[in-house]
Structures are given as structure tokens and as C-alpha cells.
Amino acid sequence: MTRLFAAVVAALVLAVTAPALAASPSSPRGLGPPGDLVADDVSFRGGGGLVLHGSVISPRGGSAGRPGLVLVHGAGTGTPREKLMAEAVAFARQGLTVLVYDKRSEGYSFFERSYADLAEDALGAVGVLRRQPGVDPAKVGIWGFSEGGWVAPIAAAKSSDVSFLILVGANGLQPLRQQVWAVASGLRKAGVGGPLVDLTVPKLYRVVADGGMFPEPYFDPAPVVGRVRQPVLGVWGVHDLLTPPRESPPLLAAALEAGGNGHYTFRFFPDADHAAHLTPDGGVTRLPELAPGYAELVGDWVTDVTSGRPPATQVSGPAPVQPEDTTPVPPPAWWESAWAQLAALVLFLVAFGGYPVTALVRRMRGRRPSTAPARAARVVSAGGLVTIFGAFAFLVHQVMTGGKLAAPGPVVVDRPLVWLALQALAAVTVVATVLTAARWRRSIPVGEKVRLGLLIGGGVAFVPWALSWGLLLP
After folding, report:
1. How do residues 123-143 score in pLDDT, each as one tens digit?
2. Could you tell me the pLDDT band of residue 4, with boundaries at 50, 70 and 90?
3. Which residue among 71, 198, 239, 375 is least enclosed by CB atoms within 10 Å?
4. What is the mean pLDDT of residues 446-469?
5. Which residues of 159-173 are buried (b: 16+ CB within 10 A; e: fewer)?
6. Cα dist. 222→8, 36, 154, 219, 225 in Å?
7. Averaged over 410-439, what is the pLDDT?
8. Strands across the sheet with 51-59, in order?
9. Distance from chain centroid for Cα 125
10. What is the C-alpha to C-alpha distance for residues 355 and 220, in angstroms, rounded to an integer?
11. What's the pLDDT at 48?
């Protein structure tokens, strides 16, 4: 049942906020490489023996002994290879042979994924690229974007066939913590603040994760990165709104240093977003063009490290923009768990929904009510139901649009106008509960006392629930 509750919430949240988990940069689908490059289709086996398909992009007439580069997608189910064609073309023009493949959909969804399986997919691609004509098998590395920044180090730490590692928009934080920060940042950028951002968004994701519907929520990348022995190139856009660009690089550097790996180069690109593409508005809009110098950096760096000249530790570029720090997102206490939230919803459905349902049943049976229905009781019933399910619907919508950095609509006193209206309705529901309780104390028929008592019980339980979700907080 907890999985059912979490699925209802998570299906809405993750289906659209998966881009906040870092969907791959977009490029037109169905476009092959330009005339100065050649493409060959390949197939290989990934994790669990799954057959995957991809394309090998190479310079036309390139010299033998070329380095090879496998591109690993960011989050997204079954992401096609065309999503990374801009990167593949840019890197191939730097003299690399690039393999880009369609991401798996089997065993991967909004609610299910295994970074270990994805790493096996990447290693399967490394194996086939090492056998391509013109590629030096000792010079093949992996490029991992966003979610791929969690995946690629697993592959590199596992196999000596990987000679170098490139990370773009990579995270040094747990996925759940990163996701909450990304969504909160999107809402803050739209002018939203207060409990909705600081309390409600983290609570929603904690409940979803507790219900088992947020895959790999507490994956810790540090131990894996600490086992990487290959040279590492890390790239971040200064205006990364999906990965905390100020916090992640030092965490990754610390993990590399702890493992004794001092061969890493970190570069920050100005006017660039999460995918190191140009952005005209601080990371909200992604342009098709890569940041100037990004492809050249990759080509030169790969040439150096595969020629036996791994660079010393270097961090360069303008300071990234990250106004807000991330905060820990621990598992919920039992009263905040998915079980508790499901129980609360059932209680509210019975308590608030039972009042009008019993009235309807009486009317259908031709029984006239023994007392006139109280207006306050009607307000408790309607207000409670509208507030609870309206808040969930609105919250999920705001989280979705916040994760995609879209405007949440009119904002009044640092919260969306609709959320403010729901907060007002929650307060009205509490007041109506008090008035209904006063009526319950009067001399009314026993049947009506039971009916109102259940409604009042729901109203009483509604108070701590609404407080915990920020609906009754200023």
C-alpha cells in the first residue's frame, strides 16, 4: 500500500522532474553526422546481457591509433543516441572516435534503475569501441553527463579497459539531496520561498523515497570516485541549476585525493548551463551550442592523457553561481513515512468524504435529515477534501515546473497565489472544525453526533497534517 501511495505521488513528480535529475542535452533527432565524419551502427551487450544499439562517429580519413570516447547519457528512460549527437560530432571533430548509444528502457524507469547495470552498459560500449578500426584499445575512455556522472565512475573503478574519465555536470552528492536542491532552486529562481520550498518540497521527496519510488536515493558517489585511478576531467557550467556547481567539485576532488588520484582537471565555463551548453538567461534556457572551448578542451586533454602526459591537478574558470546550499535529506521519521501519509489520506477520505456520502445515501433512501445540516460542517468536509487533494495536486505541479525552471504563476508574499489560497482554505477548515465541535456539544440525535464526531475527528487530525506540510505555516 505504501508503494501505491508513493506511486501516485511519484508518477507525477518524477515523470516530469526527471529532467532535474539531469536529462540529456537535446539535439535534433534523426540527424546523422556531417560530411566530414562517418558513422557506423554497432550493437553490444550491456548489464544483464541486454542488447543495446549505438553509433560510432569517426573523422573521415582519420589516422590510426585514435583515442575513443563512450558517451553516457543523463537521466531518462530509453534516451536515444541523437540526444548526444551534438557532443558526439564536436568531439569527433577533435580527432576522437565516439560511441553514442540508445539508453536502456528495460530495467530502467522513473521508479526503477541500477547504476551498476548502467555502468555495465557503458563497459559493454567500451568493449566494442576498443575493437573498432583505427581506435587504439589502450586509449578508450568514458564521458558521463549528469546521472552519467554517477554511473561512469563505477565503470572506471571496475575496469582497467577505461583509460580516462570525463564528467560533465557531475554530482558529488546523493541523488535525493541533489534533486531536492534542484527543484527548490527552480522555485526560488521564480520568486518562491518560505515553507513551500524549505519544508514541503523536501518532505514530498522523502515520502516518495520512503515508498520505494525514488531509485538510488541515497547512493554515495564518494567511495566509488575514491577508487578511480584514471585521469579525470570535470566540466561544469557556471550557471548549472540542476547540479550544485559550487558544492559538487570539491566533494569529487576530496574523494579523488583520498584515493591517491591527483590527476584531475576541473574547468568551469562561463555562460554555460548544466550540460556545458550556452545559456542566455542564467541556466533556464539551453541553447544547442556547446560552450566555447569545451570541445577543444576535451580533445586536447584526451590527447595529453592518452600520450602519457596526464596533467597535474588543475581547477580553473570563473566561480560557479550557487546562491543556496544543499541540505541533508534524511529518511523520514515513522510519522512522516509513506505508511503514515497513506493512513492519513484514508482517514481524511472517510472523515471528510463520509459526511456528504451519508447525506446522499439518506436522500436516495427517501429519509429526511432529523436536523438541518450545519454550514460549518459542510465547510469542514469540502474544505478538508479540497485542501488536501488540491495541495497535493498543486504541490506536484509546482515541483514539476520548479524542476524544469518554469514560472509557477503569480507569486504573492513569496508563494504562488494558488498555494496561498490553499493555505487560506486550510485555515478556514480549522475554524469550521471548531464551530462544528461547538455544535456537536448541543443536544442532537445520536446518529448525527456520530456523523459529526467522525467529521470533527478528521478536522482535528487535519491540523498536525497541515502543519507538517506547511499549509498552516506563515
Report:
1. 999 999 999 999 999 999 999
2. very low
3. 375
4. 89
5. bebbbbbbbbbbbbb
6. 32, 40, 11, 9, 5
7. 92
8. 37-45, 51-59, 97-101, 66-72, 135-145, 165-168, 232-237, 264-269, 314-316
9. 25
10. 48
11. 93
- What angle separates helix 201-210 from helix 375-403, to the nearest 10 degrees? 90
Q: 267 pairs with which residues across the strands?
A: 235, 316
146: left (phi over 0), alpha (psi -120 to 50) or beta: left
168, 149 contact by CB (below 8 A): yes
Do 231 and 164 contact (CB within 8 A), yes or no?
A: yes
- Residue of 186, 146, 113, 178 lying closest to 397 (CA atoms): 186
The pLDDT, as a whole number, for residue 406 is: 56
Residue 443, classed as helix, strand or coil, is coil
Contact 102, 54 (CB under 8 A): yes
> Which pTM does this prediction carry?
0.88
| Confidence (pLDDT) at 300 | 96
What domains lie within the chain, and their CATH numbers?
31-174+219-316 (3.40.50.1820), 334-468 (no CATH)
Average pLDDT over every residue of 191-204: 91
| Residues paired with 277 in a beta bridge | 290
- 267: nearest Cα among 291, 287, 286, 285: 291
Residue 453, CA distances (Å) to 381, 437, 446, 456 in order: 12, 8, 10, 5
Q: What is the pLDDT of residues 41-59, one digit of tens each?
A: 999 999 999 999 999 999 9
Residue 423 is placed in which grid cell? 493555505
Q: Is 343 helix (H, G, I), strand (E, B) or coil?
A: helix
Question: Residue 396 pLDDT > 80, yes or no?
Answer: no
- Please report the pLDDT score of residue 403 as a whole number: 52
Distance between CA atoms of residues 390 and 336, nearest Å: 19
Number of continuous H segments (helices) and E segments (strands) in the chain: 14, 11
Query: Which three three-digit cell numbers place residue 237?
Result: 557550467
Residue 231, pLDDT > 80, answer yes
Calculated CA dihedral for residues 230, 236, 242, 244, nearest 10 degrees: 80
In three-state secondary structure terms, 68 is strand
Cα maximum dimension of the chain: 96
Q: How many CA atoms lie within 13 A of 209 on its CB side?
A: 21
Cα 37–chain centre separation: 34
Give the rounded distance of the alpha carbon of 358 from its chain centre.
43
Pick from 217, 216, 146, 224: which is nearest to 177 by CA? 217
